[in-house]
Amino acid sequence: MDPVIPVAVLSVILGAFIVLFFFGSYFRKRRSEVQSISKPELQLQSDPKTRPSKPHQPISKKSHSKPHAHASDKDQNKRHHPLDVNTLKGHGDSVTSLCFSSDGRSLATACADGVIRVFKLDDASSKSFKFLRINLPAGGHPVAVEFSDDASSVVVASQTMSGCSLYMYGEEKPKPSDGTKQQTKLPLPEIKWERHKIHDKRGVLTLSGTSATYGSADGSTIIASCSEGTDIILWHGKTGKVVGNVDTNQLKNTMAAISPNGRFIAAAAFTADVKVWEIVYSKDGSVKEVSKVMQLKGHKSAVTWLCFAPNSEQIITASKDGSIRIWNINVRYHMDEDPKTLKVFPIPLHDSKGATLHYDRLSLSPDGRILVATHGSTLQWLSVETGKVLDTAEKAHDGDITCISWAPKNIPMGDGQASLLATASIDKKVKLWAAPSLSSS
């Protein structure tokens, strides 16, 4: 027998044994793996205690339930304050200024997106508002807006790299069509006059305008532009002519306002004193001169804001000294009679540590009974008679409030009319607020 054959047979048998051993080991291993995977699955299905619902439950509560409920509560407090009437949306950036027309039916807003919007307030509770869009010349950022002689003309302060400009936009009356009954569309407002570098390279802080009716004034709109320096310029709204200017000589202005009758102009600046000038009118109704007539002394720190009473005989000031003062300026200043402090109230707003906060802005209701003040995003209504808080909206906006103004007259709302306040903010929104009840004061 060939000795090679037994060796070959032995090799085949040995190889078969090795292969059988290898595959047997492999299948046993796979079977144990399958069993180890399948048993927990069966155990999870049969024993509810081992289901992963409990470990996931606290995670669900922490990351979803509580924050969602908290966010909803905050959102509700922020958007559904009892006095919150409506929100005017559509602005593309921070709203820097707003003002009402003399009849209260139009609201103009200045926005950092370079657009002036004039909203028609036919019904304050409406779901949407029609508005007129005015695009400023390229490169300018509107910082303040004020109505001129009627609701179809506005004066805008626009800031550029080279300084601040004033533009007056007005509408032309539509020309009658040639025998056709179809109504001609109203033309868009166009620039009627413009003035550039009005305060050199300094910016404009505020615009304040009113229809001058005191003494021999002819009812024309007078507008004061307050610069961030120390100068204030008075403008004739319709023609754009400079009719007067004053210098506060107080290092840096904060704001300026004209009295509702056009008689006085008052400025809050770097110091604790408020200077008041009188606008004197000629027999023909034009401005003759602007002369300093009095100074309000009594605050111990800088005055942050001021506003006139509707009768133009009182001024309300807020100061960093933590107080509000009501002044009587209806005095015989030409006989050296000083303005008198009628009331002093502590500012009823404090931080978490109890320190008194100062007010950023003030606005007085048309009836002179409710004072509205702001600090950051907080809005407060106060009784002028008692100084007590009527209501507070701590998160009136999603950011600092930039401007506030009462409508000069009641605005239609639903089936009735209401006295409304408008607020603007860096959150790209303008809100309308109802007046609180005075019964609690």
From TrEMBL:
Organism superkingdom: Eukaryota
Compositional bias of kind Basic residues: 51-69
Transmembrane segments: 6-27
Pfam families: WD40 (PF00400)
Sorted UniProt keywords: Membrane, Repeat, Transmembrane, Transmembrane helix, WD repeat
Polar residues: compositionally biased ranges: 37-47
UniProt cross-references to InterPro entries, sorted A to Z: WD40/YVTN_repeat-like_dom_sf (IPR015943), WD40_repeat_CS (IPR019775), WD40_repeat_dom_sf (IPR036322), WD40_rpt (IPR001680)
WD repeats: 88-129, 296-330, 394-441
Keyword Repeat: yes
Residue span of region Disordered: 37-89
Protein name: Guanine nucleotide-binding protein, beta subunit
Species, as recorded: Trema orientale (Charcoal tree)
